[in-house]
Amino acid sequence: xxxxxxxxxxxxxxxxxxxxxxxxxxxxxxxxxxxxxxxxxxxxxxxxxxxxxxxxxxxxxxxxxxxxxxxxxxxxxxxxxxxxxxxxxxxxxxxxxxxxxxxxxxxxxxxxxxxxxxxxxxxxxxxxxxxxxxxxxxxxxxxxxxxxxxxxxxxxxxxxxxxxxxxxxxxxxxxxxxxxxxxxxxxxxxxxxxxxxxxxxxxxxxxx
Length: 208
Known about the structure:
Low-confidence stretches: 1-40
Number of helices: 0
Structural class: mainly beta
CATH topology of the domain at 66-206: Immunoglobulin-like
CATH class of the domain at 66-206: Mainly Beta
CATH architecture of the domain at 66-206: Sandwich
Radius of gyration: 27 Å
Mean pLDDT: 82
């Protein structure tokens, strides 16, 4: 049986989302018979007959945040793996990023991956899919997902330094995104049965 590991997304300079609108409102209050209605009103301007006047309470927009999450990797579509010659086995995991800062400062999602080690000490790397390694869609509303930069197909995820999976440049990456990562790893015929170790994928989101 495989040991599956994943780690939660590490935040780089995240802050709590506090996005709100402060709007004044009129509210009719209970009053006694014969008394004039009492109103809790927005600040009013004094208007002279024949002269236009106005009063305004502009909304206040709170500070947003950059946040995200990731799921545990799924190997072989969740089915057991049996030794049957050299095999290419699929894996996938899904991450999310939400940027509500409104600044368009950009962000990068990187992956740090350890090799998968079989019971007889043979190891294998995780390789991004050759055809569709990263599938990015909007989660709610977002700016153009096609403007994001992604890692090249066929890239080895086991690298000396974290691998940039998805990068949102200046002026992009606003809103919410779902990032599906897909790839394959080799199970050689000499792998040996039993539990595996390693194969951890650590996702980090950071700002420029």
